[in-house]
User: Fold this.
Amino acid sequence: MNNLKEKARYLEPVMRIGKNGLTEGTIIEIKKQLKKKKLIKIKFLRAFLGNNDKKQAAKEISEKTESIIIDQVGFVVVLWRR
Assistant:
């Protein structure tokens, strides 16, 4: 896990989730990115967080994309899928 955290440090977010939230299209795109890259970083924008909880949203994304949350700091979550 620490090795993945180290690798994730240098990644740019592949996706930014804003006011539209977690739509089906967003989940599909995250799945595509995970399939292609295995380790991705996602950033939550302030517009999304207005009425959403970051930790809950990260958990929901993880469940829907069958991925593992490697790290979550501030507005950024790092996901990994085998």
